[in-house]
Design goal:
CATH class of the largest domain: Alpha Beta
CATH superfamily of the largest domain: NAD(P)-binding Rossmann-like Domain
Distance between the termini: 37 Å
Strand order of the largest sheet: 3-2-1-4-5
Shape: globular
Number of helices: 11
Largest sheet: 5 strands, parallel
Bound molecules: ligand PQ2, nicotinamide-adenine-dinucleotide
CATH topology of the largest domain: Rossmann fold
Strand content: 5-15%
Radius of gyration: 24 Å
Mean pLDDT: 92
Low-confidence stretches: none
Number of strands: 7
CATH architecture of the largest domain: 3-Layer(aba) Sandwich
Oligomer: single chain
Number of domains: 3
């Protein structure tokens, strides 16, 4: 039977774009540009910023002064020569015509472009973002309701357990130490490594993972990976350290959060159906 793809439409491709050391041109220096700068700096890219000094937002000024990763030009956009070497173009200016012009020029050069607030001139949209690095969560309403994206972000932020970023960081350290012991890509060793990592993540609570350090990571690898088993957190983390942690009910938070959003989605569908019957 052919797959039903009728509902696979109307969304975006949400990806974690790797921009390290790429060149991003930002045109405009207001509040929106400041938020674009923050997002691009997080991605370790270099920024060329073109905007007259007189229109710079305080936050933009602070970013310019704080890092050599921003090359600042105190002027308005000059023309196609400003697009030279750009891997991405973002405009955040209060001049719709100029924005459209810049967009046309960059699209001619096949440079991915976002024009703040003008969806037809965007090759990609920005979303509302939870930033608890290395965790990032992007919320997109696919252009339907940016303010709602902001409000949904707040709800997700409130539902995330404290210290979740530490757990992710420590899992990253564990994975890289495991790779030193079991290197390579593909093949049986790789399968075994992935299986073991999956079992550790499934078995351990986030708050226990967050307590890992260099010594306990080695212990987990010695007692676990080397012996083809997954030890309990109690075996690896000293009792006193576990006793000192705040017990976060992550196992409860996940179903509650998922339940909440399923509820919101069902209500929205019901309201929409009622509305369309009138
Ligand atoms: C999420 C966020 C990220 C960011 O920009 O960083 C973002 N807009 C945010 C806020 C916001 N923007 C607007 C309001 C006023 C209230 C309202 O209109 O709802 C507020 C609310 C506020 O400021 O709180 C006005 C607005 N925005 C767009 C239009 C044009 C249109 O709809 O046609 C208009 C109407 C202009 C008009 O009416 O004239 C278009 C876009 N805005 C997007 C992103 C993309 C789709 C995002 C998605 O799919 O959800 C998209 C398509 C393109 C883009 O810009 O990338 C950020 C919240 C960050 C946060 O706080 O967490
Ligand atoms: N997507 C969003 O989240 C969102 C939210 C609010 C506003 N906006 C829209 O984004 C745009 C920017 O918003 P803002 O609040 O940062 O505006 P702003 O007026 O504070 O800043 C505009 C900036 O663009 C600069 N500028 C104007 N023309 C220029 C040119 N030709 N070359 C270089 N720089 C130029 C100005 O000097 C100023 O720094 C507006 O169109 C606004 O409607 C988008």
């Amino acid at each position: 039977m052919p797959a039903d793809v009728s509902k696979l439409s109307g969304g975006s491709l949400i990806i974690a774009w790797q921009l390290k050391d790429k060149n991003v041109l930002i045109v405009g220096g207001g509040e929106v540009a400041a938020s674009r700068i923050e997002n691009i700096l997080i991605a370790d890219a270099r920024i060329t910023l073109i905007a007259p000094r007189s229109g710079l937002h305080l936050q933009t000024k602070e970013y310019i002064g704080a890092t050599s990763r921003i090359t600042y030009h105190d002027r308005t956009f000059a023309g196609p020569e400003d697009l030279e070497g750009a891997d991405m173009v973002l405009t955040a200016i209060d001049d719709v015509e100029k924005s459209r012009e810049i967009c046309a020029m960059s699209r001619e050069r096949k440079i991915p472009t976002n024009v703040a607030d003008i969806p037809p001139n965007c090759d990609f949209y920005f979303g509302s973002q939870v930033k608890r690095l290395p965790l990032q969560i992007m919320i997109s309403t696919n252009g339907k309701g940016p303010r709602l994206a902001h409000l949904i972000r707040k709800k997700i932020e409130d539902s995330l357990p404290e210290g979740i970023e530490n757990a992710i960081e420590k899992v990253g350290e564990l994975r890289s130490k495991l790779r030193e012991r079991a290197p390579g890509v593909g093949g049986d060793l790789s399968k075994k490594r992935m299986g073991w990592m999956t079992d550790v993540c499934n078995t351990w609570e986030l708050e226990d993972l967050a307590l890992l350090n260099e010594t306990t990571i080695d212990k987990l690898l010695n007692e676990g990976w080397e012996k083809d088993r997954v030890p309990n957190a109690e075996e690896v983390i000293p009792k006193a350290k576990r006793a000192g942690q705040i017990q976060l009910p992550f196992s409860l938070l996940v179903p509650i959060t998922v339940g909440f959003f399923v509820g919101v989605a069902c209500t929205a569908v019901a309201v929409h159906r009622l509305g369309s019957r009138r």
